[in-house]
Design goal:
single chain; alpha/beta; six-stranded mixed β-sheet; five-stranded mixed β-sheet; 22% helix; extended
Amino acid sequence: MDSAPQVQHNSLPVGDISHTGFSLAAIKIQSGSVEELEQILSSKVDRAHDAYKHTSVVLNVENVGNLNSFDFLKLQDVCRAHDLFLVGVTGVINEDRYEALVRRRIPVVNSNRYARIREENLKPKIITKFIEVKVPVQIPVPYEVKVPYEIPVPAPVRIVRRNVRSGEKINGDNASIAIYGSVSTHARVVASHHVFVFGNVNGADIFAGAPKNDQDPGLEDAIIHVQGNFNPGVISIAGNYRTGEDLDNDKELSKVCAKKEGLVITLKDGNLNYSTLPDFRN
């Protein structure tokens, strides 16, 4: 009789989820039709059937125009007919396309879907302004100059007294957001000012200092404070992004989180900085 496999003492408990280094073959498509995928697999995969047999693949939909008519289930059937397992799509480069797929329960296997957005934010922006001056300039005496001024108005705080569910979006236009609970996977928290989470962040997207429009650079003085465990999908302050994949490899962040004293994220010179809550207060 076969005996049960021996369990190592350092193995993960049953049910635990960890990050892996598995890679998937990506098939780039143009129209997203069944006919197109059938032609690609017949010409590319079937010729090397033994090399691809029973492997998992994803479809790169970067060039697919209309994702609303994208029939993922039929494309899965085409892949199974060629002994492939279609597990999701990749190449999703903006939030609207990501939402269009997730609403239809199509898996997005795309850990750096914000990479292009982040690259655009890091590019230097050159602003050219032309001023026409007529010489000579006659200035009457006395001359009154009207100087515009702003009266600062305290930003309100939107308070959420519960856990934020998976897929839920919490907006704080012209406000900060304080959440007395945890934020679940695929949830989004977007605030024009600060974000405070007095619980855990598990796979959620957190945006603080979010720009209000194309002319607004966002609030660079905004902070993100997380009191519990910190494992986000994406974080951003004033349009400066870091993905969960980036954060997993950030040694500075790992040291701060290991202290279990609360995490504060700030922005300086375009870079996100991390500190414990006691260090931030000092």
